[in-house]
Amino acid sequence: MIKKSLLLFSFFIVFYTAAFPQDGTRAIDYNTRSTGRGGVSIGFFDNPSTMLTNPAGMSFIRKPVLNANAIFMVPITHFKNYVKDANGNTTATVLNDADGDKMLYVMPSLSYVHNFKDSKFTLGAGVFTTGGMGTEGKFKHQLFANPSFSTNYQEQVYRSRFAIIESVISGSFLITPQFSVGVTGEFVYSTLELSQPFSLPPSFLKGNLMTSMGMTTYAKYFSDPKPVGLGYKELTAFAEMTNLKSYTFGGKIGFAYKCSDKFSVGASYTLSVPLNYKNGSATMDMSSQFSEASGVAAQNLVNVYHISLDSAAKLVAALFAANGINPYAGFVANYDVNNEFKTPQSAGLGFMYSPMPKLRLGFDFEWLNWSKAFEKMTLTLTNGTNSNINKMLVNGTPGSDALIVEFPMKWKDAIILKFGGEYDISKVLTLRAGYSYSQNPIPEETIIPIMPAILEHHIMTGCSYDLIKQLTLDMTLEYGLKNTVTGTNPHQVATEYNNSESSLQNLLGHISLTYMF
């Protein structure tokens, strides 16, 4: 049987390697059985995923057990924002009011717990997709318009892929027949990809610019009020980051007390894990932004000197050419990119109470320290390949300092409350139901459509059925109720998000097979 288990585990790793990019928001729990009762798991000790929620609970799993689990998720996103006027002010005219693409994400896991006969030690191992985010949609951006039709906006891809996969080894020790302590060591592998229009203030342009009025900087030229400058408060490029990978380690500790079959309690603590993504690739396309800026510069000359627009455009082209800007080199740059942020530390407390035979009720409380983990993303770009962009930015070019961008997130700490129960209809059938409430951690000033992890209310129902004496099938349906967050004005990420609305609802199906040896 051990040989068969190893073969099954090897097959799962092959499948898992292909499946891990299909990520989603953080799961309520990592096992179908626990999710069916609202995700209550810290004080329930009845399946191998306890090594992720409270490893001490493994001591009360009396037989070796193997579990294969999968979560199938379809997030439904919606984005609405508004047109800006010529001065950059947000109007009441709708620009986007559209759903994102509906996509299926699969989050598999495989875990095994071995309880040694006549020993106080219990060991466990597993591979879990523990979290992430994934959205994709095509939305309009005012900068990217057909030159012949100023309101014929070209849709841009807004896309995120963020996955966290953990390979874990756990151990628990039964100090007394009722009290256990456990630890889990984690090898954490994470991937990150982002695509969207990306805005920065003109102050990032460190290059010098010689004009008819003397030496200045690109930053000053682009930001000074018209007609002396171009009057920009932000500059936008279409940006894409791919192949970012992080390898690191984490851990957790848990305590479990099982007073009797009627009452048990557990507590756990999880370390924050640094995610230092290395050796990624980034592409930054400033073609549309530079084209628009050239048009603004030409219009400035028309307004001041009353010349034709064609003559003004030629003067602007000559100005940039004199400063080494070559239009034939284009405005698309490739970079090497690194990225840094963290997963949150967390702490939890859970209870199980059985008021009558066949009925078990549970409650979990969790605290997630998002405020320290997701304060910002630090992007480091080096080895820029485009000569025109290099002249304007300076930083990020070969032989110069890196271009460092601190992307604001400013997530807030969150409390999660989980309630649920289960009832044994017969010896082979158990029904479950539950509810989970989680505070939305994303503030209005940084909410964006590619990171809409804003769900607050989840409802679940599920069941277990013993296919044979040793093999149990678990199934759960989960619905994350729609939540909408309205961005502030001004918004801290980009003006396109001023007064914008980002919405998310989630449909999930969970299924698992559990084999008791």
Strand content: over 45%
CATH fold-type name: Porin
* Average pLDDT rating: 92
Count of DSSP-assigned helices: 8
The end-to-end span amounts to 8 Å
Give a count of the beta strands, DSSP E runs of length 2 or more. Answer: 21
Strand order of the largest sheet: 1-3-4-5-6-9-10-13-14-17-18-19-20-21
Please name the CATH architecture.
Beta Barrel
- Which regions have little confidence, pLDDT < 50, spanning 5+ residues? 1-25
Compute the gyration radius: what is it?
27 Å
CATH class: Mainly Beta
- Structural domain count: 1
Q: Characterize the overall form.
A: elongated
Largest sheet: 14 strands, antiparallel, barrel
Order of helices and strands: HHHEEEEEEEEHEEEHHEEEHEHEEEEEE
Helicity level, as a percent range?
10-25%
The fourth-level CATH homologous superfamily is Outer membrane protein transport protein (OMPP1/FadL/TodX)
Secondary structure class reads mainly beta
